[in-house]
Amino acid sequence: MDRVILHCDCNGFFASVECALNPELRNVPMAVGGSVEARHGIILAKNELAKKYNIQTAETIYSAKKKCPNLVIVPPHHDLYEEYSRRVNEIYFEYTDQVEKFGIDESWLDVTGSQRLFGNGEEIAATLRKRIREEIGITISVGVSFNKVFAKLGSDYKKPDATTVISRDNYKEIVYPLPVGDLLFVGRRTRDALSKLHIETIGDLAESNETKLIKLLGKQGETIYRYARGEDDSPVDPHANDEVKSIGNGMTFRRDLIGEKDILCGISHLSESIAVRMRKKGVKCTVVQVTIKDPDLHSIQRQEKLDSPTNLAKDITEKAMEIIRRSWNMKNPIRMLTVTGGGIVDENASEQISFFDEAKNPKQENLEKTLDKIREKYGKDAVQNANIIKNDIGI
Fold first, then answer.
1. Catalytic residue among 18, 48, 100, 106
2. Residue 393: HSE in the Cβ half-sphere, 13 Å Cα cutoff
3. Residue 143: CB atoms within 10 Å
4. Per the omega criterion (within 30 degrees of 0), is the bond before 160 cis?
């Protein structure tokens, strides 16, 4: 018996959440965007009225405003988006325990075993759409199919607030005319490579020569060939995204950073944010990576291994500053910084500390964990590092 897989996609998620919180925004063309003053002014999401002006995700606010001078720009509230994502997925879990998140606004559900309780796949999709619209205040589009790849194509096929069923009877009619770039894991480079073989649609891919595809793209060629033909048998895996490989944060600053004081301010803030996330997930990093971008958008990336695993902001800050001092002229301006903790391990994993390594600093560990509790109770801005107070770089 075929599986019944749903792919649920929140429509214009960031913008939908903002409209749910402020219903007046539903009546005007609006978009969620970064700050022009802080120099990361791009469109992150837009509502249906803004889409009528052909405003695109990732285009600059300047460009979007030229298309729609009355466009209302709302700053992003990522904590709220995480909360809404959690609430939406809690509803999904009421219908099946086989839920696999695919980003903050998309999830696959295997409802094969749920149909006796809740109806067929299309009926479950209709129920989910109704509940999320009425209880959460946003809309979802749902693809229903016999595999994950076609279910995702279904959720993209008709928006907003729609269900598309792709079955064994109709999949060639619906899927084959779609551009090959719509297929999961076919990015721009793969699409351009396929175009050289005159493969422009998913149907072209399904009817192409598998041997030529493998020769051109290796293992990926075999994978996307099977996907196009509906031969995806990958399971819906609730634990697919449990393993954390790295935790990072980056920022484009309101003005260029110049000199050690400026750079330390930025690094301290970024290191603090990733250290807090590590402690929440119960992990530590063994590698610190720093990415530096200058005003001309040229970038360098450097990383170094730590003496022992850590999830303390102090340790990460010190290592990141060491990396920058060794690899960057401190007099040169910096537009953007990213700090990433890599080589993630469980915080309870045993550490082999050599005779020459410094022992852990329990006072620092207790201090940072105490700050976590204060911020959890009173808000993330309740306590700040002294060197970022009254800064003018956008933190």
1. 106
2. 26
3. 28
4. yes
